[in-house]
Structure formats: C-alpha cells, structure tokens
Design brief:
By secondary structure, the protein is an alpha/beta fold. It has two domains: 68 residues, 2,3-Dihydroxybiphenyl 1,2-Dioxygenase, domain 1 (Roll); 83 residues, Roll (2,3-Dihydroxybiphenyl 1,2-Dioxygenase, domain 1). It has three helices and eight strands, in the order E-H-E-E-E-H-E-H-E-E-E. The strands form two sheets. It has a four-stranded mixed sheet.
Length: 151
C-alpha cells in the first residue's frame, strides 16, 4: 500500500505575497524558488519558499483573499494556544535540528525586530513562538527523538 511520507508544501493564503516572501526570506533565511501565476486560476500568484529539497512553504495571493476579513479567534489563532475555526490552520511549526539551532534562529528572528516567546520545553520538543505577517502564528521546534505519545 502506498502512503504519504511527508509534507510537500503547505499553501497559505495571503493578501500580500511580497511581504510574506520578504519576511520568510529575511527573518527565517528561506529561499524563494518559484513565483508564478497559478495555473488555471485567473489573477492568482503562487510562490514557493524552500525548506529542503522535498518540503516547501507556499503562499497564494488573489483579489478575493484581500476582500475577506481576518479575525483573531475565528480565522487566525493569534497565538500557539489560540482558538480558530475548525479546518483552519492553528499555527505553522517549522523544524530545526537541535536546541542550539533553535536558540540561534531565535536570536536571528529577534535581530530583525520580531518579538519571540520561548524557548519552552513541551517534553516532546522545545520551541519558540512569534508572529509573521497577517497574524500568522509561527513556531520553530526541535525534538531530540521521534514524538512518542506513550512517553
């Protein structure tokens, strides 16, 4: 049986793809690898930022997105523990390899003027939290071993 084996890309709606690309490139050091008009979707931009050779963060922008209201606690969580409507993304957690990497990235993020909460020890991982453009709740996390719900 064939199974999915990872996340190819996570597509996030945006009113301002340029601001998202600038933030994720400058603050998190991600590389923009593709930006094009989305196939068969008039007036829609699609941009891909590389996490690794098989995993990307993507942004989608069109006029209809700009017209939709954004509301904390409904469309956006506003924090790593905030409420959001079912089916919506609560937060995006990106991985680093070690606690040292987590602290180095925290310092890089802070050097760009972004407030960072943490690191927190969740038992299954250590993580930091911060806000991206358009109230996107972001987390950087690292685990010493695979997550085990029995632990």
């Amino acid at each position: 049986m064939t199974l999915a084996n990872g996340v190819h890309h996570l597509a996030i709606a945006t009113r301002d793809i340029r601001a998202q690309i600038e933030f994720f490139s400058d603050v998190l050091g991600m590389e923009l690898v593709a930006l094009y008009w989305m196939h068969n979707v008039a007036g829609t931009w699609h941009g891909f930022l590389k996490l690794n050779d098989t995993c990307y963060l993507a942004f989608v922008q069109n006029e209809q997105i700009a017209a939709l209201p954004r509301q904390l606690g409904v469309t956006h969580a506003g924090s790593g523990a905030g409420a959001v409507a079912g089916g919506a993304m609560q937060h995006v957690a990106l991985n680093v390899d070690s606690l040292d990497d987590l602290l180095a990235l925290r310092d890089r993020i802070r050097s760009r003027g972004v407030n960072v909460f943490g690191p927190l020890d969740h038992g299954l991982c250590h993580s930091i939290y911060f806000a991206g453009p358009e109230d996107l709740t972001l987390e950087i996390a690292t685990s010493e071993r695979a997550i085990d719900g029995r632990a």
